[in-house]
Amino acid sequence: MAASNFVDYVKIFCRSGKGGAGSTHLHRAKYLPKGGPDGGDGGRGGNIILRANRNLWTLLHLKYSRHVLAGNGGHGGPNRSSGKDGEDKVIEVPCGTVVFDADSGEYLAEVTNDGESLILLKGGRGGLGNWNFRSATNQTPRYSQPGEPAIERNIILELKLLADVGLVGFPNAGKSTLLAAVSAAKPKIADYPFTTLEPNLGIVSYRDNRSFVMADIPGIIEGASEGKGLGLRFLRHVERNALLLFMIPADSEDIRERYDILLHELSEFNPELLDKQRVLAITKTDLFDDDYLNGLRKHLPEDLPTVFISAVTGAGLNELKDVLWITLNDESNRVLTFTHRDLDKRHRETAEDDYDLGMGDSYDDADVESTDREEDW
């Protein structure tokens, strides 16, 4: 079976450029035998820049290009000629990508808006040439500065999909069927557990040419926060959703118990998920009559908007859209606070963490001119 093209967790090696060495040079000309120092400064090393791109939806391209190396700064030259700055390297990632230190799990940065960029690793400064050290008492300095070294780091990039509504439910709860019914998305639908193996996004059309984005993630089972099933791998995508739509089939033995299990797994993964707005949808209502459905209402969670729907017949879908739109635009739901945490060891992917990037702790220093400098920074 071919591997999925959806990659939301990848480990890469980054190295910024080292600064160029300053030049130690004394000016010489036919009629100016003692022209004094004129060594130029070295160029700065290239930066590693992270930039969000809305045209990307996966980190697949980085899985096959794990080494991101910026250019080194050029060395200074005579006549106060400055070295060339090193070439910057830009890492294009989907919106909603979070960066962690691969060794410590420390949170480093994130990009959420298209075009948003930040310097992930700063290139080394170029060394000063001997022209900068001239003075009345030191008219012929025969030394210059080396450039600052490069910065190396193994990092983890983790994608968290940005969506307005996230679908939360057990396998075969009807999440993919609902997404296919209300949007143009075509997720895989079948009558067996874990049909959905990767998140799917769909744009739901609403009245007056308005719309919102809905995300379908693989089914969550009891114990998902501890690594059971597929839920743990994809629960990270729920963190970015503004609203959570819980989906429980009408034929469940105890709807309230199923809802509590889902809520518990979300809280175990990240307690902040409990602060998000929630809506409950009772699915597969076309299998039962009105009397049975009315009897279910007394077992539903209190103070939670609930809609009875059938994605097959279309019953209740318009009402569901109304409830979702009203909840999304509720004043209390417009400002979302999200506290960034370090990468939990339970949420790490062993296959990626154990991947050998094949880079040592040192970088190639063969092109550094050691003869032009006598002092360090």
Question: How would you sum up this structure, described in words?
Answer:
By secondary structure, this protein is an alpha/beta fold. The chain has two domains: 1-159 and 350-377, Distorted Sandwich (Spo0b-associated Gtp-binding Protein, Chain: A), CATH 2.70.210.12; 165-341, Rossmann fold (3-Layer(aba) Sandwich). Helices cover 14% and strands 20% of the residues. The protein has seven helices and 14 strands. The strands form three sheets. The chain has a six-stranded mixed beta sheet, with helices on both faces. Strands 3-1-8-5-6 form a five-stranded mixed beta sheet. Strands 4-2-7 form a three-stranded mixed beta sheet, with no helix packed on it. The radius of gyration is 29 Å and the shape is elongated. It starts with 8 loop residues before the first strand and ends in a 24-residue tail after the last helix. Mean pLDDT is 82; it is low at 365-377.
Short description:
The protein has 377 residues and is α/β, with parallel strands linked by helices. It contains 7 helices and 14 strands.
Under the CATH scheme, the architecture of the largest domain is Distorted Sandwich
User: Largest sheet, order of strands side by side?
Assistant: 10-11-9-12-13-14
What is the CATH C level class of the largest domain, in words? Mainly Beta
Number of domains: 2
CATH fold category name of the largest domain: Spo0b-associated Gtp-binding Protein, Chain: A
Instruction: Give the termini separation.
Output: 55 Å
Q: Spans with pLDDT under 50 lasting ≥5 residues?
A: 365-377
* Average predicted confidence as pLDDT: 82
Percent of residues in beta strands: 15-25%
